[in-house]
Design a protein that fits this description.
The protein is of the alpha/beta class. It folds into two domains: 1-32; 35-290, TIM Barrel (Alpha-Beta Barrel). The protein has helices at 3-32, 54-63, 79-88, 100-105, 108-117, 137-156, 178-185, 197-202, 207-214, 253-262, 277-290; strands at residues 40-42, 68-71, 92-97, 121-124, 160-164, 172-173, 176-177, 191-196, 218-223, 225-226, 243-244, 267-270.
Length: 291
């Protein structure tokens, strides 16, 4: 074999190896799928069954395939008792909720609860405002000051504060919205965000565009879908039965998850507020697996 033939053979071998590597990578990607994360759930989904039996509800959550929780300690139970029930079922508490007024008044009980449960994130889901659908600049300004203080207090304790979008924040303001004002005026060291994709969409925002714009300011996602034909507004409220099985409503969940994944967001919680959770939640999980 002359040198020219040998070089040609070597080049061919290199190309073949490259093609094999590409094919293998594609096969792994297809096997892994777009949704390659732990399955998480916001336990508000089970608000009707939880008071009837915490252990039985957690059994259901485990049986459905969830391993991560965004939750709070059920009434009548200590954080230690709840932690044991979760641990016994292999359920990890990633985030807990905290009420705005309580966090402003005294942050210590929330820190203690998060520490006992092993949570890394504290989520606040509502900014008090006087007029439904009429969130104001003054209310946003107060929230900014409070969030910066809450966030610093939690950060000093090794926790991350996340404000959960609820839709009313998209009131027009200057060249953007009051949500833009809040994000741009809160300290990134202390204040992060949870994107509830349905509420953002309901308030007139594009969840994918929000992820593109604010990137890693978002740490957590609520996965929900909105019934087809339902029109949004700035009230932050709609019929709970407008929550539908993921992938059957108006949102481009595939695109949203792809963007979130590209940003390195790792925690996704299904939240289904409907009266059909026993029917819908397993089908929402199946949808995520299909991705």
């Amino acid at each position: 074999m002359n040198a020219s033939t040998k070089n040609t053979s070597n080049i061919g071998l290199v190309i073949l190896l490259l093609l094999c590597c590409i094919a293998f990578s594609d096969a792994v990607a297809q096997k892994k799928g777009l949704y390659s994360f732990e399955f998480g759930v916001q336990t508000y989904t089970y608000r009707k069954s939880m008071p009837l039996g915490v252990a039985a509800t957690l059994d259901t959550i485990k049986a459905e395939g969830f391993t991560e929780l965004e939750t709070g300690v059920p009434k009548g139970m200590t954080a230690q008792e709840y932690k044991k029930l979760c641990d016994d079922r292999g359920l990890k508490v990633v985030a807990i909720g905290g009420g705005y007024e309580q966090l402003v008044k005294d942050i210590k009980p929330t820190i203690e609860e998060a520490k006992v449960l092993g949570a890394k994130y504290v989520m606040c889901a509502w900014i008090p405002h006087k007029v439904r659908g009429g969130f104001t600049l003054e209310e946003a300004q107060k929230a900014v000051a409070d969030f910066n203080a809450i966030g610093k207090g939690l950060a000093d304790a090794g926790l991350t504060f996340c404000y959960h979008i609820h839709g009313y924040e998209f009131q027009p303001y200057q060249n953007g919205t009051l949500f833009d004002y809040i994000v741009q005026n809160t300290d990134p060291k202390y204040v992060s965000y949870e994107l509830d994709v349905m509420w953002a969409f309901f308030g007139g925002a594009d969840p994918t565009a929000l992820l593109e714009k604010y990137g890693t300011r978002f740490k957590l996602l609520h996965l929900k879908d909105l019934k087809k034909g339902v029109k949004g507004d700035l009230t932050g409220g709609t019929s709970q039965d407008n929550d539908v099985i993921l992938g059957t409503g108006q949102l481009d969940l595939r695109g949203i998850i792809a963007k979130a994944k590209s940003l390195g967001i790792k925690h996704y919680f299904i939240e289904d507020e409907s009266s059909r959770v026993n029917y819908q939640v397993p089908r929402s999980i199946a949808y995520l697996k299909s991705l």
